Description:
The complex is a heterotrimer of chains A (about 100), B (about 625) and C (about 170). Chain A is mainly α and about 100 residues long. Helices cover about 80% and strands about 0% of the residues of chain A.
Amino acid sequence: xxxxxxxxxxxxxxxxxxxxxxxxxxIVIYMSIELLLNSVNISLIAISADLADSSAQVMSLxxxxxxxxxxxLFMSLFVILxxxxxxxxxxxxxxxxxxx
Amino acid sequence: xxxxxxxxxxxxSPLLSALFIFFINIFFVNTRQYIFTxxxxxxxxxxxxxxxxxxxxSYFYSKIFSSHFFTWLNVGEFSIELSFRADxxxxxxxxxxxxxxxxxxxxxxxxxxxxxxxGRFFAYFNLFIFFMFILVLADNPIVMxxxxxxxxxxxxxxxxxxxxxxxxxxAGNKAFILNRIGDFxxxxxxxxxxxxxxxxxxxxETIFVNLHQIDNQSVNLIAFLLFVGAMxxxxxxxxxxWLPDAMAGPTPVSALIHAATMVTAGVYMxxxxxxxxxxxxxxxxxxxxxxxxxALFAAIVASRQYDIKKILAYSTMSQLGFMFMALGVHAYxxxxxxxxxxxxxxALLFMVAGAIIVSFSHKQDIRELRGIKYSAPLLFIMMGxxxxxxxxxxxxxxxxxxxxxxxxxxxxxxYELFAIAFVASLLTAYYMFRMLFVIFFTKSxxxxxxxAKSMIYPxxxxxxxxxxxxxxxxxxxxxxxxxxxxxxxLADKKVLIEHSTxxxxxxxxTVCIMAVIYFTYKRYAYTxxxxxxxEVSIVANKFYxxxxxxxxxxxxxxxxxxxxxxxxxxxxxxxxxxxxxxxYAKAGRLFSYIENGNVRYYALYMAxxxxxxxxxxxxxxxxxx
Amino acid sequence: MQNExxxxxxxxxxxxxxxxxxxxxxxxxxxxxxxxxxxxxxALFALVNATFLFIVQIIIYAGAILSLIIFIIMFLNIKDxxxxxxxxKTKWLLGTSFIILPFSAILIDLILRSDIEHNVVASDKxxxxxxxxxxxxxxxxxxxxxxxxxxxxxxxxxxxxxKREK
Lengths: 100, 625, 166
């Protein structure tokens, strides 16, 4: 059972990375990040079930709390970015680029 | 080794005077001319006196002077010392080199009077004498090579003295470059010699002691390469083309360098290496043939030249050919004696030519210098003496020396050499008297300036010497003692000739030469035949040798240099380095596209790196998992 | 037996909805399929008896965070011209999944070959709020306090960021 959960966790993690790299829409990028966190949660819960230790569930809880605060900040970032550029394209933010 | 103070002073005094003149010339403007004159004459006069002293002691008391400065190089078994030695051969050379140089110095103070580069001239002149002394007094071939190079360098500086005219610089370049080709041969010979027997010390004595250790092929090679050096220095075929062009320098330069001293360096060097040439018999024969060819060629070309100095230049080349012919049949003392007398009469002839040029407003073409017998009677007498001497009429000096050469050629049973020498001596009389008759024996009249006394007196002394110096080596048949030959004590081949044969030879020679003089008189004296001779024949254009050299050697080298410069240096090397630098810049620009500011791309690159890492991990651990 | 079937269905739901999430064009579509993912993950929590976290996941994650996202999407009034036109979306997705493949392949391989199931027997009350609460406030008190500070920081930060310049 544990192995199945962990394999599922790995698959979801990969899907999250794929979504993070491939999409240009910043909202989809943000949701892929959330998916990464969730896959880690799955893995933690499975381990806690296997070892009968509650610490892993506490860790999971804390991760959810952190995800919540991160969501708040992300949202305010979206508001600002959309206000400035009125577009949701991640490729527009390339001031770090070396070739103009 | 002991240090002979007199020898040191002899060598160093021209150097010191040259340096003083040089510094004064650079640092002080508008110095009086007499300061330079005093310094120059001191430098060469002191050494001339000392040279006479050394020769006196060397001849009468067989004393050897030697002087050792320092060890130049000391590597393991090989060592090169900077030492000088005045044995009989060197003293004999000093006997005529130093006094003739001093006389020409006096002459030059008159010739170069009021010249704006007076100081520079005498600095170079004294420097030349210094290097000539080093060459003559050297104790080992390396020191001799220093002198060898040095005289080449100063002759370049003196030939291109009037450098404002670019042609003179070209002439100087030509002299130096052809000398350099000869120097290459000399240096290669020295290197081979050094490799073979350098380990036992490298002075001349030790070389000749160890000479038997070298195998025959190397000996021949060394002898040939040394002669290449002599070919360049003494203007023999094929490296002679610089000598006529070198007449672009002032006449004292021609008198000293191209008559008495530098061109004789080749002869001196071969005589110094006499034990070597006694072993390498084939190369000696080769030397004789080259000498014969040069003598004949130069005599033919001289008979159709119109410039006084060029006639004399080819005459020098021809006389040197005679000397080399004698050297080739191992008659060293004879060749040296001819060099001795030649120095006097050739320097005299050049000085007379210079006096004529100066007196008659720098005209040098003999067709324009006609009719000066009564306006310059002294010059007429002196040139007449010179012409008679060079034609080997008895009892003037060259008769004895040239006749000795002819005898040794006859005895060597190479009769073709004797025939060529005979024809060449007839031609010598022809072209010298042609010059004399055309200039002096005409009905027209020209007036000119008077010559300075400083020019006249040395010429008088040299006239005297060219008349009577033959008696120093009076041959046996006239009950003489052969003083010079016995003094030199070189490894001559003994010339055994019947007295009667020798007298017949002398008689035949003299009669034929008289006939030639008469023929020349009939042809050129009081006629205008000279004006009818064309200027475009092959002979008059020196057989187009310069043009041939230009096409065969100079132009291909120029094209090769241009090719190397444009194609190899610019296109290949420069361009390839530029391409490397350029491609780095381009690659950098290409890589800059990776940094496009998009963080997602950075994540992609990280993922790609991760992929490679994991693939590698999978491959590494795949079999073991 | 029952557990395995349930697990299979739920995991399949999670994977499919996450794939839809990352490949949808409009953000509202991705948000909605993300909700499906979150709920199935919560169900998976419940399957291993972590009942407290099942509730927490639904209330906080799906209920608060996702509704915040949907609220912002609607608030920003995103029209189709504001969205980036992703011409090569499929190529990117396939390429990246190909790149990620070795990574996940090795991990899955490791997991399959390893020996990590301990299967410790737990009590009935395991995973309930009582147990989790005890552990939270005894061993994990310090991270708990720090997380509360973090929430404070996030609160202030988001207000500061979104303020309009006067």
